[in-house]
Design goal:
mainly beta, single chain, 13-stranded mixed beta sheet
Length: 209
């Protein structure tokens, strides 16, 4: 059965220090979303491997992922302001009913600015631009979609997205404004890249009316 449902987006900022010990505040920046598609294929994470248990669930990577049939899509771009914490309507998805298992998210050029503090170090940072060559696949979204009213919410979790950055390994020097822009070849920029492309940075949930 064909149907539509609204998709909305909210950005959440970390309220506690990151796993790396850095506390990040004053977060701003942009994340242009170009598309979201939903598929029936589920994301399988190999939980029985003892080595997997040493990896926090935020950094779980999909195992043998097959997208399967396309179930819904939003192809209207959305410019996401990373300084805002309000729920932002995106668009209505053209959809069909059935079993949903996963989502794929397309991005433009992502950039984050803010202040990172750890012990006696304070770094005003600018990640610099990160352009992804392809959409991020295999983001978990398991829902039995019928015709009942509701909407899909995408939460962009900056706490996970920034959690791998070693802010003092930026390979750069501060500009005249005191802001340090990551060198694209640096450990810090690599951590940013890995966070943006980590499916754990994005959570899709169904919000019933």
């Amino acid at each position: 059965t064909r149907r539509t449902f609204p998709v909305e987006v909210v950005v959440t900022a970390p309220t506690a220090p990151l796993e790396t010990g850095w506390t990040v505040t004053d977060l701003t920046g942009s994340m242009p979303l170009t598309e979201v598609r939903f598929f029936e294929g589920r994301v399988l994470v190999a939980r029985w491997n003892p080595m997997e248990l040493l990896i926090s669930t935020a950094h779980a990577h999909p195992g043998h992922y097959q997208a399967g049939a396309s179930m819904a899509e939003v192809l209207v771009p959305l410019e996401l302001d990373l300084s805002k914490r309000d729920v932002l309507p995106w668009a209505d998805a053209n959809a069909v009913t059935g079993s949903y298992g996963s989502a794929r998210l397309g991005f433009g050029t992502v950039r984050v600015r803010g202040t990172a503090v750890k012990a006696d170090q304070t770094i005003r940072f600018d990640t610099g631009p990160l352009t992804l060559g392809k959409p991020l696949e295999g983001i978990r979204f398991e829902h039995e979609m019928d015709t009942s009213g509701g909407r899909v919410r995408l939460e962009v979790d900056l706490g996970v997205l920034l959690s791998r950055i070693e802010f003092d390994k930026h390979g750069s020097t501060a500009g005249a404004d005191g802001v340090i822009t990551f060198d694209p070849a640096s450990v810090a920029f690599n951590g940013f890249d890995r966070g943006v492309t980590d499916s754990g940075s994005y959570r899709f949930t169904w919000q019933p009316n």
